[in-house]
């Protein structure tokens, strides 16, 4: 069971991970912060190790009581809502945060992979979290990210994903101009770029549905995929639109694509 540490001021030793809004700094220390009981439980279930907890007093014997029991002999810092907001700089709507140790980013993918989402230079943390949640819900086996992407273990991404970043295997695959499409092809993937081009096929194309291994490639929010990426892919696909709408937000487009091109078996 965690060691309860009642805090009365901002200088209590051990609060640095919760005061540090520079998440790259936390990453450099091998840490990340998860928010809400549900998300923290998911991380613990996935084998992530807690360093400490920061909790609203009432959550310790309430919604987070089971978490306090699970985390071992780590400090559980406890305070009222006002002091918690002063420490973190934001309102804790879910009442509890957990500083956790990162795992190696060289995550092994499942032995059998049929659908992967490939994210090229996607920086928006909300979009990243939504993509992971859709990927988990709609049968994507893994998420691959170029080095230009935001880190999936940033707090907002974790929260928006509802913890699915701990459930869907993911890894960084290098820079977006380093030939990663060619490597996916060598591994037997049909590569499909989502882009607004004239030379596209419909997302409903039967070749996409029948593919044994399919990589769905999504680009950054503003400019989309690099021209070289699109040209290297086997196919360029587009979601049919109505009412003059030309595109969807990348997270919404990803959800549609994951469902429409889900693996149906052979």
TrEMBL record:
Residue ranges of every copy of the tRNA/rRNA methyltransferase SpoU type domain listed in the record: 116-258
One Pfam match: SpoU_methylase
Gene Ontology BP terms: methylation; RNA processing
GO MF term (any one): RNA binding
Record carries keyword Methyltransferase: yes
SUPFAM superfamilies in UniProt: alpha/beta knot, L30e-like
InterPro entries reported in the protein's UniProt record: Alpha/beta_knot_MTases, Ribosomal_eL30-like_sf, rRNA_Methyltransferase, SpoU_MeTrfase, tRNA_m1G_MTases_N
Source superkingdom: Bacteria
UniProt keyword annotations, A-Z: Methyltransferase, Transferase
Protein name (Swiss-Prot/TrEMBL): rRNA methyltransferase
Species in which this protein is naturally found: Ruminococcus albus SY3
Lineage: Bacteria, Bacillati, Bacillota, Clostridia, Eubacteriales
